[in-house]
Write a structure and sequence with these properties.
By secondary structure, the protein is an alpha/beta fold. The chain is 51% helix and 13% strand. It has a five-stranded parallel beta sheet with strand order 3-2-1-4-5, sandwiched between helices. Helix 7 links the parallel strand 4 and strand 5. The longest helix is centred in the middle third of the chain and has 12 residues. The model has no long low-confidence stretch (mean pLDDT 93).
Length: 164
């Protein structure tokens, strides 16, 4: 079930760190990349915030900058971290970009880049037998101020057989 590569934005890294499931990424993907803006946002500017220390300590995360020519047009559409993640995913063959922001996901879709969100990672992990249930993780994220659209939560829980 291991896929080739994933390029992550900051919010999914933070969410996975909050629920102590960062290690799902290297279990589901052979290579895990983050662009410098994402690393900076989570570990430098985010120092002391949830997820910063956990992300800073993972040995499997490769920091790689995207090509400036691919990055520039994206900066008018999404924030720097999302733009760098999308640009880097464009440059890495057969990669997937990990984004939770709806606008960033639409941009990636327009560029024909495979995309997944935090709930998609948890869904894959459950289907691969890496976690037993999604609901407790979703509740922990929500309890920590992470907004997830109710209809999305319901659809994912229904898909994995966890609807009340």
């Amino acid at each position: 079930m291991t896929n080739t590569a994933i390029v992550t934005d900051s919010s999914p890294l933070i969410a996975l760190a909050i629920i102590e499931q960062l290690d799902l990424l290297p279990q589901l993907f052979q290579h895990v990349f983050a662009p410098p803006a994402v690393w900076d946002e989570v570990t430098v500017r985010g120092m002391g915030l949830p997820g910063a220390q956990a992300v800073n300590q993972v040995p499997w995360l490769t920091i790689q900058a995207p090509e400036p020519a691919m990055l520039e047009p994206l900066l008018i559409l999404v924030d720097r971290g999302e733009a760098e993640a999308i640009a880097l995913a464009q440059a890495i063959p057969n990669s997937t970009v990990l984004l939770d922001d709806a606008q960033a996901r639409r941009v990636a879709e327009r560029l024909a880049i495979r995309r997944i969100g935090t709930l998609g990672i948890l869904r894959r992990a459950k289907k691969a037998g890496l976690i037993l249930a999604l609901k407790p993780y979703i509740q922990t994220m929500q309890n920590n101020g992470i907004y997830i659209r109710f209809s999305l939560v319901e659809a994912v829980l229904r898909d994995v057989g966890e609807v009340n």
